[in-house]
Amino acid sequence: MSEQITREVFDHLVDLAALQLDEEQAEYLRRQLNNQLKAIAELEAIPIDKDVPISLHGVPFEESASALPRGDDWKPYPDPAGILAQAPQVEDGYIVVPDIPHTELK
Amino acid sequence: MELCDLYALELVRLVRNRETSAVEIVKSCLERISQVDGASGSLENPQITDKDKESVHAFISLTDDAALKQAVEVDRRLAAGEDAGVLAGVPFTVKDIFCVKDTFSTAASKILANFKAPYTATPVKRMQDAGAIMLGKVNLDEFTYGSSNESSAFQPSPRNPWNTSRVPGGSSGGSTASVAAGEAPLSLGTDTAGSIRQPAAFCGVVGVKPTYGRVSRYGLIAFASSLDCPGPVARSVKDAAAMLQVIAGADEHDATAAPLPAPDYLEGIDDGVKGMRIGLSPDYFRITYPDPASGELLSQPLPPEIERAVRDAAEKLAANGAEIIEDVPMPNTRFGIPAYFVISRVEAASNLHRYDGVKFGLRSEVPTLDLKEMYKFTRNQGFGLQPKLRILMGMYVSAAQYSEQYYRRALQVRTLMRRDFEEIFEPNGKYHLDALLTPTTPTTAFEMAAVYGDSVLMQYADQLTVPANHAGVPGISLPAGLDKDGLPIGIQLLGADYAEKTLFRVARAYEMITETEEWRKVKPEVLRGRS
Hints:
The structure holds 2 protein chains of 2 kinds. By secondary structure, chain A is mainly alpha-helical. Chain A has helices at about 5-15, 25-40, 80-85, and strands at about 90, 95. Chain A has a domain at about 1-45: Histone, subunit A (Orthogonal Bundle). The longest helix of chain A has 18 residues, at about 25-40. Chain B has a domain at about 5-270: Alpha-Beta Complex (Amidase signature (AS) enzymes). Chain B is globular. Chains A and B meet through α1 and α2 of A and α9, α10, α11, α12 and α13 of B.
């Protein structure tokens, strides 16, 4: 069976996923992806009427079993310093990151 | 028998009657942990010694000081005549996928190894409010991505207490191993494709995947948000029911937690199965496997020992008044894994984008030119192979040019699987079943390293459990004997939405019927030779 995810497609996915892989990892992961696609191909053999709706979740969200949306109320979080303390780099209450790359819009 | 080997409800009784104390119970569990658990999982990734190969390694972090402190408080309350909660003095372990305030909450991943949760997950908080005492956080597959626990970044990964050369299953393998080894009577796990039920079957304990929405996901580090279900692991059906009672219910922090009151799960649990309709489906007696050489999917019958356990259970339930309905069609069962490969990966990729080295968790210390490079270095260092694989597949099948072919189709197949369940449980339908009885797993616990690395074969370990996740319906796995190698066999009961009470009743009936059988007297290997 031919490989559906070629090295070129794979490298594009890796970039989109914000990953950077060594050669050994890349080969393993690409092989596994192609193996998984063979299993997924079984879906194509199922006769499905076009009108069959999709299910984004199993249990229907009927009114009686669904929570009402919360009120849009402002509730200050009691410990913002605790949240900021989790960030790898903070300065004067701001989270610091490396330079954000700039892209010229065409 | 030591305190740590008793059922949770028995411990509650003893504590309330002042026949023992919460402190004594916690000490008993800590003593057991020190005897059987060995080294906790860590990022150091040490050489696995021969002694390590004989230990359970359920834990990533032990919170023993906090547990003893809470036990003192439970005892104080009881002595003062105050309400100490319905699970007062009962120790439990927590899969390290739940946030617990001020504890490391790692998801067994390097990327979250330094993350101390700023708040506590609702199911954990409800356990603590009920007087249950958390002993620590237990290991899992990284971000729950696996069925053996071997993918944890925190090694040594857990081993099966029944035979430490075998995996405990996954991803709640630390939960089920800790309960099977008598380290705690209860554990909180999660089930996205079978991650409570499959390891429960492998470790010979009871595992419950509640209806989607029955238990809040607030504070659960998300994998696949439309499938994830927190649930109990226990050594008896009644203990599992008591634990679900505590953790179930609406939650203002989770809009998908159903605002339906939980019924009293223990009321009538001993009433037996007389008049109940229990189905058997041929679609759960055949299994699919990828051929190791070609990768092609082959269909084969279930291993005879596992099929025999299910049929034997059906006969026993029938002898006690249940009506067994054979040949119940569940034609879309076999598509559960292919659809799961798509749906879960799309949701996982989406959920994993938040780990970027900015707000919390690991940030790569490699000097980088810009933000994008920092993301890449961080994610490469922080994620193991399984999260990387899931992210890449999720991005591929949801890409604009493929989403019709894969994602949309998988969601349609999910509808077909849901219809299978609706038809058999419909009260006015042809089958109007109370429960479907199936095997939990296609095999018993496999050898360490036998499957890990083959992501397709590993995924097929969940083929009999994943349909319930797609459909959202509840399921329970319970022990039903031992195979020729002395490894536990699990059987599964599936029910209609929110029918946990019915499932508990059937499961409890089976437990009572088989109470005196020889296999129930056999202990896990790590406990043999103890009084």
